[in-house]
Design a protein that fits this description.
By secondary structure, the protein is mainly alpha-helical. The protein has nine helices and no strands. The protein has one domain. The longest helix has 28 residues.
Length: 219
């Protein structure tokens, strides 16, 4: 059994890796971040990502406390999946309508400094992450493996270094994603950017339909 300090360091390190892995797969959140960067928005995106990271941490806390059975196996998981799926379909549809009304023009200047609505963007990020039961399932698996490998239980005050690691892992991934998309954005033509954003909106609709379908299949 490692000492308290060593256990905290191990939890932080492993949670950083797990947080990175939880955010990295292609999905609605990463597509949304990519779309916002292609649309040259910055300020509201920060609030959005904070909402995502906090919701990801909340999933981990629920998994550590054992409430995952209630959310995973009960009707709440189905309703969350259906609501989240409908939300994604609506966002994708609205984005496509916006693309159809706006013809692609030349890209000039740097990132837009629109203030956005930080609170609404924060809530959006929280909803998109919080309504996805897949994150809860991931943290149930990750915490189980981490506890078995380290012999340290993710309970009590040990949750603090664990959540710190999750925030670091999520933050590292989104920082890399934003740098990559911003570099690529400067080297492509406006029409290609418009096509990419249309593809992202279509992917939102596709992912949303799948989420609704799976939501209805959950007993």
């Amino acid at each position: 059994m490692p000492s308290a300090a060593a256990g905290a360091m191990m939890l932080t390190s492993l949670a950083t890796v797990a947080g990175f892995c939880s955010s990295a797969p292609l999905g609605a959140i990463n597509l949304w971040v990519t779309d916002r960067i292609l649309d040259r928005r910055q300020v509201a995106l920060t609030s959005y990502l904070l909402g995502v990271i906090m919701a990801d941490g909340a999933h981990a806390v629920l998994a550590a406390w054992g409430y995952h059975a209630f959310f995973d196996e009960g009707p709440i998981a189905g309703w969350l999946s259906i609501a989240g799926g409908i939300f994604l379909v609506v966002m994708g549809g609205l984005s496509i309508l916006q693309r159809m009304r706006r013809s692609p023009g030349p890209i000039t200047g740097d990132l837009q400094t629109t203030s956005g609505r930080p609170l609404s963007e924060f809530l959006l990020g929280s909803l998109m992450c919080g309504a996805n039961p897949g994150f809860l399932a991931f943290w149930v698996f990750a915490i189980n493996q981490i506890e078995r490998q380290t012999g340290v239980a993710v309970v009590g005050w040990q949750l603090a270094p664990f959540l710190l690691g999750i925030g670091l892992g999520d933050g590292i991934w989104f920082w890399l994603l934003m740098r990559l998309v911003r570099r690529g954005r400067e080297s492509v033509q406006p029409r290609l950017l418009a096509s990419l954003r249309l593809a992202i909106a279509t992917a939102f609709i596709f992912i949303g339909i799948i989420a609704v379908y799976h939501g209805f299949k959950i007993p």
